[in-house]
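Predict structure. Chain length: 427.
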Amino acid sequence: MNFTKPTILYVDDAEDNLATFKMTFRNHYTILTALSAREAGELLRSVDVQVIITDQRMPEMTGIEFLRSILPDFPKAIRMVLTGYSDVDSIITAINEVGVYRYITKPWNENELKIAIDRAVELYNLHSENYQLMQNLAEYNRRLEHIVRERTSELTNTNLELHEANQEITRLNALLKEENQALYIQTLEEHEKTLRALYLAQQAELRMLRYQINPHFLFNSLNSIGALLKHDPPKSKEMLMKLSDYLRYAVYPAVYDTVTLNEELKMVRNYFDIEKVRFEEKLEITYDIAPATEYVELPAFILQPLAENAVKYGMQTTTLPLRIYLGTQLNNGEFCLTVANTGWLVASVEAKESSASAQMESLLYRKSTENKRNSGVGLRNIQERLKHVFGERYSFEIYERDAMVIATIRIQQADNNGLHRSSTGSG
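Prediction complete.
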């Protein structure tokens, strides 16, 4: 493999020092030498240099003066100074002014200087990688803002469609009340149009749910990734890819009404991994997925509201760390999905003191004081779409037991292939 050797510029007014330096390190680096600051400046304008090493005592200007003069035009290069013992105090004083990485006393030791140069090259490469990551993040933010603007426009259009659909439903209901028995056939046709309008309204609500990405989650995720850039660039890149995959799944509509459990789990794992970076040891996730359930079909985007509720309300009600369990089972033709978290239900006092069905009703239709929309829309959407896909073959429960909030979805298998999509089939 071909590796480009790092380029080192050594500035010294003594030719024998330059010759010795070049002879010593030419096998390791590309060595450029200059007898004066003026000559060094001309070289820097024509060649990319990773490390600049200068002697402190030179007739035209000192090494520190030379480094100060080139700092505005060549800020990325790592700067080092060679000095005699008598210059050490003045060098230490000047280090903060020009960002000198290290100073080496004369006469220099070959091994010591080689180690110092290697570390300077590593630092240069790290700075370059961080700069590129920041550029990539800026470009990603720009593209993300563009996507958000597009989705906002689509959401506005969807709201208009919903308004028009509601107006149409109101008009048709009024017509149905006014029609008499003589117009029975015509009434049936209008009723069919009403059902179609309701179906479109349901589909529009699902699109709204997908587009309502929590801005706090998005901003917190980007802040966490930005913080990782300082001390763990590879981890920040990994988390950036997870956020990208999560958003791609969230904002683009599904091709089918149902997806496999595996597809849903990919998005939820990305979501939990991103939240894990934010909350660190305050959040613990346990997965217990039965292999036999991996290709069970579910309505698209069914797991995300349960995952978000577990994090949001678990953080509000539990003693940290918040522990979340996500598991599946398949027993005697019944598929069971469980999402549980430590804490307790966020429901009204009246519902807590009444029946389990009243608690469920409170969760599905409670009003949120944090924003203008119903906080229960996600759970209500889950219940309605399960009923649409599975009819009476499902159950959906949320209850509190042993300091845990437990959400379960149970689906009875209709026949041998009633729950699964083949792992080798299309879609």
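Summary: The CA atoms of residues 165 and 196 lie 10 Å apart.
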